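Figure 2 data, in text form.
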Amino acid sequence: MRSKKFKLAVVGILAAFGVAAVVYSGTSTQRDAAKSEAVEATKAKPALSVTTTTPRTVAWPRSLSTNGNIVAWQEVVIGAEIGGLRLTEVLVNVGDKVRRGQLLARIASDTLDADLAQGRAAVAEETAMQAEAVANADRARQLQSTGLISAQQITQSLTAEQTAKARLAAARARVQSNELRLSQTQVLAPDFGVISARTATVGSLAQPSQELFRLIRQNRLEWRAEVTATELPRIQPGQVVMVELADGVTTQGRVRIGAPTVDPQTRIGLVYVDLPADSPARAGTFARGVFELGQAQALILPQSAVLLREGFSYVFKVGDNNQVAQVKVSIGRRVEDQVEITGGLEPNTRVVSAGVGFLNDGDTVRVVEAQAAAK
């Protein structure tokens, strides 16, 4: 009797456990289903309302930006042509504009004046001696046929005539030399331009080839742009260049010539750009410039559609299910708020036009019209 009761109790306990297991299993299944529904609902919820755009192909101006230094077209070193004499007067200073042949400085000429006077006196003396020698030679020629004078006397008279002429020519040459040296006591400007440097001081002793002044010829400046060997063939004489000076002022230059060689170490060549005479540029300063190279087709997008992340550029392509995919692209020129796409994106691809900083790869978005987004 007791055994029968024990068996019934065991059966009851097992039945209770079975019922509990069934209840727990049903509850767990419902919980998993609810969790899956929540995840699906979260995934399906749009992350952002966006507008879309597609790349456009337009004709854009081609340009080349580079750097370089502004230097004088030609800088002339003006020095003394004679030495051993002192400067008595300096008439110009740095920054002065001068004309061709203008007197810049004077050198003491007292010694040369005396030498010139002595030379002219020697010319007068030799002129008189030549006249006497010529007269004697003429008489010798007249008497040559009469036999009244010897052949030796005739030869001496003719020789004296030639010697007198030679001495007179030498005296005149010395006078010309003294006149030339005297003219060199005046330091003149070889061309018009502006004085860029001055070392001449009153009382200093001038020496041959010593620098006294530097002159920027014709006040012409040029910008020497540094261009890579690959870009150098694209630049032609006559092209317009917009040069931005150190103070931010922009002036228009024009290409004169490109260097026929490049540096074998840096592969950089120089392009010589003439600057206008009234330009505020100064020699020795640094400048940036943009070469205008015509127009070329470009695939463009708004700047707001391009995301810069970790040093790379990305756009977000919108799929048919409104899910975005992050696409890496290459960018080129920029004009105002438009940017050129040079690689990584096909034309007519629908991409997010704004708000890309809030998106991640794989997000689902809600696409709206541009007018609705603005409202």
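Caption note: The mean pLDDT is 83.
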